[in-house]
Amino acid sequence: MTTANSLKTPVDRARLGTLVLLAWTGDPAQGHDTPYLIAYSLGDGTDGPEGVGRAAAAMIEELGLTTGDVLHDRTRAGAFAVQLLVQGGQAVLTMPYMNAQCPAPAEWLAAVEERGSVHFMLPTRAWPEAKPGEPLSEEVLQAFLGDETVLKETAHVLLPVSRLRA
Q1: Where on the phi/psi map is residue 134: left (φ > 0), alpha (ψ -120 to 50), or beta?
Q2: For residue range 101-149, what is the model confidence (pLDDT) as tens digits?
Q3: Fewest CB within 10 A of the end CB: N or C in the chain?
Q4: 3-class SS at 32?
């Protein structure tokens, strides 16, 4: 699922634990078809969920981001350490602490095609209930991502999408 890069950094990757990637969209019937992508920890780092929070906060700072209600627009900025490639129905994320891919739903791919960017989220809180390979109900998604505290402790980035040229 994830691969650690070998960069010299103050972030202790072992404290982050397992990092997972999830792609989804809002409800297009309600006029909300934004493609979202979240990279979150399962909370199984060396210091448990509390250590995940500290390590994720350090990672967010190192990336030059902040948490809260600011949407960092990286669609016009120069080089950024987080890159997203969409190819073959997969979202492939590369960043200093993980390289991961996840299958993307058809509605997510359509929204990405239309917009050319995604709302990328990097929370400081672990999300152990959202295990890879297990079905994720809308209620579980809403309970985590609808929590104001979680949203305030999350970095939000408008991230451009890259594609391979044919």
Answers
A1: beta
A2: 999 999 999 999 999 999 999 999 999 999 888 888 889 989 999 999 9
A3: C
A4: coil
Strand segments, DSSP code E, in 104-165 are 117-123, 154-162
Element (H, E) at 102: strand 98-103
- When pLDDT is cut at 50, 70 and 90, the band that residue 1 belongs to is very low
CA 20 to chain centre: 8
Q: What is the DSSP string of 143-159?
A: HHHT-HHHHHTEEEEEE
Residue among 164, 157, 163, 162 at smallest CA distance from 70: 157
Residue 37, Cα to own-chain centre: how many angstroms? 5
* 8 A C-beta contact, residue 162 and residue 86: yes
- Choose among 150, 147, 144, 149: nearest CA to 128: 144
